[in-house]
């Protein structure tokens, strides 16, 4: 189950939309060999492997460009291998952007990584907007919380047409912006076709009002990506490098649900495939924990998201 927030520049209030099925993003293996897959290690001149992707340093890449003024910063402590991607970052004191050449129309995943540390600048103090040339405002007045000792990763699904694609970083007045890593890759064939263009509009208290039309041209931001009944699935085990978190902490009443699985043999039908989500997502589920010694078995399973 994925909860998705749509954002588009001219609208100030972003309606919340629940897509009560998996955010279905198909990908066949060949997609990774398409020309526009950008995995960028910002502020670095070295290659780092993270998950199943190789991130190239932006200081010696000829396939992407970024505007000056900007400069690299480095965390002087040696980070563990699992965090090697976050040893460096690029800092922008003024509005700047990365520019990518996109060679095919389609849904792209744009993933931004932020890992704050203190160097020449204290990256925790950065407050900035991130937007794109399409034109979507992805993050506004964004700041990495001091409490966060782990990377903050933001996933966006954007419908992009071929040509130049820019990601803009705009610091708030008297502040600056930074980014640790950027991914831009196509997730076609398929993707948004499996997400309905019309979704139920769910109010914050959970009542379904009317339908919300025109989802496809919006930028979709992943807010929660939940693996129901199963463990955390980290980027290494996901075809699109996504993280999935267990649902337990969102379950309103743990007594209402019981784990199903793991199911050994999956039989994919229709649009779902092992690229929509890893097998392990489908191998577990939860069902109603009915119990004849209850007064009534007329209840629902509720998950709460803040
Ligand atoms: C991409 O979309 C644009 C605008 O919709 C269109 O003009 C162009 O022909 C499309 N390119 C491809 C390769 O489909
Ligand atoms: C490098 O990052 C780690 C993790 O955030 C932090 O604990 C450490 O203080 C940083 N080192 C410097 C020199 O900022
Ligand atoms: C975060 O930490 C930095 C220094 O470590 C400090 O200057 C800043 O005020 C802190 N911000 C918050 C919101 O606590
Ligand atoms: C950041 O975005 C907000 C919301 O659209 C806007 O009010 C603000 O002016 C933007 N800040 C910068 C520095 O572009
Ligand atoms: C990936 O999945 C395998 C098999 O389920 C598991 O053993 C391994 O720990 C997982 N790796 C990560 C990084 O989650
Ligand atoms: C059913 O409910 C009773 C009373 O609350 C409890 O003792 C029992 O363990 C429950 N059975 C199952 C299978 O959950
Ligand atoms: C589902 O259960 C919760 C908690 O018991 C309750 O507050 C809510 O009204 C129920 N919702 C529906 C649609 O039955």
TrEMBL record:
<dbReference type="InterPro" id="IPR024788">
    <property type="entry name" value="Malectin-like_Carb-bd_dom"/>
</dbReference>
<keyword id="KW-0808">Transferase</keyword>
<keyword id="KW-0067">ATP-binding</keyword>
<keyword id="KW-0472">Membrane</keyword>
<dbReference type="GO" id="GO:0005524">
    <property type="term" value="F:ATP binding"/>
</dbReference>
<keyword id="KW-1133">Transmembrane helix</keyword>
<protein>
    <recommendedName>
        <fullName>Malectin-like domain-containing protein</fullName>
    </recommendedName>
</protein>
<feature type="signal peptide">
    <location>
        <begin position="1"/>
        <end position="31"/>
    </location>
</feature>
<dbReference type="GO" id="GO:0016020">
    <property type="term" value="C:membrane"/>
</dbReference>
<keyword id="KW-0723">Serine/threonine-protein kinase</keyword>
<dbReference type="Pfam" id="PF12819">
    <property type="entry name" value="Malectin_like"/>
</dbReference>
<feature type="domain" description="Malectin-like">
    <location>
        <begin position="40"/>
        <end position="300"/>
    </location>
</feature>
<keyword id="KW-0325">Glycoprotein</keyword>
<keyword id="KW-0732">Signal</keyword>
<keyword id="KW-0547">Nucleotide-binding</keyword>
<keyword id="KW-0812">Transmembrane</keyword>
<dbReference type="InterPro" id="IPR045272">
    <property type="entry name" value="ANXUR1/2-like"/>
</dbReference>
<keyword id="KW-0418">Kinase</keyword>
<dbReference type="GO" id="GO:0004714">
    <property type="term" value="F:transmembrane receptor protein tyrosine kinase activity"/>
</dbReference>
<dbReference type="GO" id="GO:0004674">
    <property type="term" value="F:protein serine/threonine kinase activity"/>
</dbReference>
């Amino acid at each position: 189950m994925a909860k998705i927030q749509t954002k588009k520049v001219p609208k100030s209030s972003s309606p919340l939309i629940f897509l009560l099925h998996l955010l279905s993003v198909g990908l066949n293996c060949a997609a990774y060999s398409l020309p526009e897959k950008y995995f960028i290690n910002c502020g670095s001149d070295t290659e780092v492997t993270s998950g199943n992707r190789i991130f190239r340093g932006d200081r010696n890449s000829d396939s992407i460009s970024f505007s000056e003024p900007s400069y690299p910063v480095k965390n002087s402590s040696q980070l563990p291998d699992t965090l090697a991607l976050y040893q460096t970052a690029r800092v922008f004191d003024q509005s700047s952007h990365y520019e990518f050449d996109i060679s095919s129309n389609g849904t792209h995943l744009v993933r931004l990584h932020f890992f704050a540390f203190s160097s020449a600048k204290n990256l925790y103090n950065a407050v900035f907007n991130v937007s794109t040339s399409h034109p979507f405002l992805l993050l506004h007045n964004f700041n990495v919380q001091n409490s966060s000792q782990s990377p903050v990763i933001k996933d966006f699904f954007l419908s992009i047409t071929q040509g130049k694609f820019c990601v803009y970083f705009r610091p708030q007045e008297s502040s600056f912006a930074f980014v640790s890593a950027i991914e831009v890759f196509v997730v076609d064939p398929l993707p948004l076709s499996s997400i309905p263009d019309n979704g139920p509009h769910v109010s914050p208290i959970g009542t379904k009002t009317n339908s919300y039309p025109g989802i496809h041209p919006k930028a979709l931001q992943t807010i929660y990506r939940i693996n129901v009944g199963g463990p955390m699935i980290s980027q290494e085990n996901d075809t699109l490098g996504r993280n999935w978190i267990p649902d337990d902490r969102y379950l309103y009443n743990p007594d209402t649900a019981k784990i199903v699985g793991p199911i050994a043999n999956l039989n994919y039908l229709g649009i779902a495939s092992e690229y929509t989500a890893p097998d392990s997502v489908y191998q577990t589920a939860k069902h109603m924990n009915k119990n004849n010694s209850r007064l009534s078995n007329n209840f629902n399973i509720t998950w709460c998201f803040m």
